């Protein structure tokens, strides 16, 4: 049975993050890394990065990384609590907005807000990418792999799953060398 | 055609959830607009905008909005549940495998390579969005400020948003008035 204190901490953290996660879950990855690795010290930096990569190999919305992190820290109860805490506060807000939605009315407002959110979310995503890169790479070969991936992903539409598979292979080869 | 009910929403969003790797939005668009024709492209874009402007996972927000529009709160719950149920189980199975085999040196080496690639993918998506902003130099500066606030200063998310979103709103209002 998972420690109720840990479950409560997970619920509070993800419940608050839920309402701050503008621009999607990946934007909030940097904050999650800080919380799990630095503040609570539940996971090592490398383990956090590995769990993120693992979640990327599963189909579905990016939010399932939250399920995986919760599970790693506090088992099935942790997975359930974390996922629900990450989903429900935002879902309630979205539902209330969807109920009051009059199609075609809020176009101007939404456009203005999206434009205002964009710089902040892009910057946060960039910082999250940097934090993840620092977590996953301990040597030159890791950084090379990260940079090559970024260049390849930017210059052609390679499927992310293929790139992750190549990364696994490269890690295996580097581990043997 | 008749508006989809909760059961149909569950099934169709489950399909979307299972087909998307590294984000489901393109698949949601393909299913809702092209295949099922539940929404036209214009409505999809409008609803997506609302999903993105609200906090929370974007594609989950979209499922909630589409579900609510067609079948009220039952529709919202069905769409979200459909989207997440299988992916959550799959990721837990992967987690169990990780706990079991993660300590073996070969598995660990492969995972560390995957993690490096995962970070690279995240950086790529951020850089491609940054490229999209590059038309407005002030937006790029704001993005760099957000990046430094989280990455260097260690600000929390809400602090970054509370400072930079109003700044961007004011800036856009100012430049909009000057240009218009």
Report the total helices of chain A: 7
Q: Would you list the SSEs of chain B in sequence order as H and E?
A: HHHHHHH
What is the first-to-last residue Cα distance of chain B?
43 Å
Number of domains of chain B: 3
The helix/strand class of chain A is mainly alpha
Helix content of chain B: over 70%
Helical content of chain A stands at over 70%
Please tell me how large the radius of gyration of chain A is. Answer: 18 Å
| Strand-residue proportion of chain A | under 5%
What's the overall average pLDDT of chain B, rounded? 90
Strand content of chain B: under 5%
Total number of strands of chain B: 0
Total count of strands of chain A: 0
The rounded Rg of chain B comes to: 20 Å
Which spans of chain B of ≥5 residues are poorly predicted at pLDDT below 50? none
Total number of distinct structural domains of chain A:
1
Protein name (chain B): Chromate transporter
Subcellular location (chain B): Cell membrane
Keywords (chain B): Cell membrane, Membrane, Transmembrane, Transmembrane helix
Transmembrane segments (chain B): 6-28, 77-101, 107-129, 141-174
Keyphrases for this structure?
heterodimer; A: 177 residues; mainly alpha; globular; B: 180 residues; 7 helices; CHR_Transporter (chain A); transmembrane (chain A); membrane (chain A)
Polypeptide structure, described:
The complex is a heterodimer of chains A (177) and B (180). By secondary structure, chain A is an all-alpha fold. Chain A contains 7 helices and no strands. The mean pLDDT of chain A is 91. Chain B has 180 residues and is an all-alpha fold. Chain B folds into 3 domains: 1-101, no CATH class; 106-133; 134-180. Chain B has helices at residues 6-19, 25-35, 41-53, 58-101, 105-133, 137-151, 157-179. Classes of the chains: A mainly alpha (177), B mainly alpha (180).
């Amino acid at each position: 049975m998972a420690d109720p204190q840990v479950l409560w901490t997970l619920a509070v953290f993800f419940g608050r993050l839920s309402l701050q996660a503008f621009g999607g879950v990946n934007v909030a990855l940097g904050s999650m890394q800080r919380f799990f690795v630095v503040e609570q010290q539940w996971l090592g930096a490398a383990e956090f990065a590995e769990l993120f990569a693992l979640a990327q190999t599963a189909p579905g919305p990016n939010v399932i990384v939250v399920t995986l992190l919760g599970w790693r820290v506090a088992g099935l109860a942790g997975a359930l609590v974390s996922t629900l805490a990450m989903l429900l506060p935002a879902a309630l807000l979205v539902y209330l907005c969807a109920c009051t939605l009059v199609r075609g009315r809020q176009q101007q407002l939404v456009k203005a807000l999206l434009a205002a959110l964009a710089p902040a979310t892009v910057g946060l995503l960039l910082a999250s990418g940097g934090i993840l890169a620092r977590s996953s790479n301990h040597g030159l070969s890791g950084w090379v792999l990260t940079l090559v991936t970024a260049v390849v992903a930017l210059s052609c539409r390679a499927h992310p799953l293929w790139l992750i598979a190549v990364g696994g292979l490269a890690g295996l080869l580097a581990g043997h060398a | 055609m008749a508006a989809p009910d909760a059961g149909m929403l569950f099934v169709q969003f489950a399909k979307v959830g299972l087909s998307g790797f590294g984000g489901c939005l393109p698949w949601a668009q393909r299913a809702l607009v092209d295949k099922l024709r539940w929404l036209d492209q214009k409505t999809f874009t409008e609803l997506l905008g609302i999903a993105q402007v609200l906090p929370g996972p974007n594609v989950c927000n979209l499922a909630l909005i589409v579900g609510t529009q067609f079948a009220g709160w039952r529709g919202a719950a069905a769409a979200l549940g459909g989207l997440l149920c299988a992916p959550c189980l799959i990721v837990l199975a992967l987690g169990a495998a990780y706990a079991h085999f993660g300590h073996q040196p070969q598995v660990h080496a492969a995972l560390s390579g995957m993690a490096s690639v995962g970070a690279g993918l995240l950086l790529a998506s951020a850089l491609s969005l940054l490229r999209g902003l590059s038309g407005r130099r002030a937006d790029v500066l704001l993005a760099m400020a957000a990046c430094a606030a989280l990455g260097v200063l260690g600000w929390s998310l809400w602090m970054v948003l509370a400072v930079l979103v109003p700044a961007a709103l004011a800036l856009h209002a100012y430049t909009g008035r000057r240009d218009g």
